[in-house]
From TrEMBL:
Organism: Proteiniclasticum aestuarii
Lineage start: Bacteria, Bacillati, Bacillota, Clostridia, Eubacteriales
SMART domains linked: AAA
Name of the protein: ABC transporter ATP-binding protein
ABC transporter domain ranges (all copies): 4-257
Major localization class: membrane
Amino acid sequence: MSLLRVSNIKTYFYLDGLELPAVDDVSFTLEENRTLAVIGESGSGKSVLVLSIMKLVDYPGKIIEGEAIYDGNVKGDLLMMKEKQMQKIRGNEIAMIYQDPMSTLNPLIPVGKQIEEALYIHKRGKKQEIKVRAMQLMTEVGIPDAEKRYYDLPKQFSGGMRQRIMIAMAIACKPRILIADEPTTALDVTIQAEILDLLKKLQDENQMSIILNTHDLGVVEDMAHDVCVMYCGKIMEKAPKEELFSHPMNPYTIGLIDCMPGRGETKERLNVIEGYVPHPSDFPKGCRFSNRCPYAVGKCYEEVPDLVEITPEHYVRCFLVEEGIPLIKK
Ligand SMILES: Nc1ncnc2c1ncn2[C@@H]1O[C@H](COP(=O)(O)OP(=O)(O)OP(=O)(O)O)[C@@H](O)[C@H]1O
């Protein structure tokens, strides 16, 4: 059953008299105990999308349309909830971890106390019990010597260990959904792998669903069950992971996969997608990828293609794919 069904979310920013569509008509479903990866270059709208689901978009941003139905009709539409209701959901049922643990951890408070705090906010309990649980959580996320390290400050931990502490805080109340926004981007590769393994272990143990934002297809390959490829606020392609990697169809996805080490045509050096993600004030008129797309034809520059189901469960936004026209580089 779908745990979260997001339909047609639009989150726009209003700046200098401009309307900037950071997330533009995004829909997806998150299934129970599965990981949905949202992949795209920096600026494609991944963070604004998950902040929208958590109702944490601040002025000058505004969610102008959409639904995020959590737990079928049991809990209802997150986007319609009052702030008080959302406070009960955040942390308790849907928790979030970020790229930079230091943005969440208080540098002046021992980490054990901060985990206790996460437990106190949502679950009442005896002081000693909460302390024991906080230590258990430290051990669960792989912090050795929890009893001793409990009193250490965040600065006494490495980046990877700080991320483990953040994860301990996030899973403290056994959330049903964990949103991980670029959780390993700031870490070096070996530590990255350890954190991803930890997330997989916790998913198995706690039956969590995960939304994982990343710009790294290697991380997607390792972690995801389902994938949404995002570009300029829109989903360009959506499919189960194996299908996406074996039959990528949208030129943007093909470009991203070509850039992965060990893939693509050029073996001597890594491929790149020419150009950069445009700012929302400067999106091209037709398909948002048209000005970087090596296959674009006339219509691509004029009209925005729809996201169309090409094969079962495999959705693609591209006129050429939709019309069965072979992709031939210009
Ligand atoms: N507070 C804000 N005010 C104005 N524009 C914003 C704000 N936050 C985000 N945006 C814009 O929304 C768009 C999407 O940004 P977002 O941070 O979601 O991208 P992203 O894919 O998560 O990239 P990154 O990984 O770099 O965070 C960008 O064009 C960004 O400039």
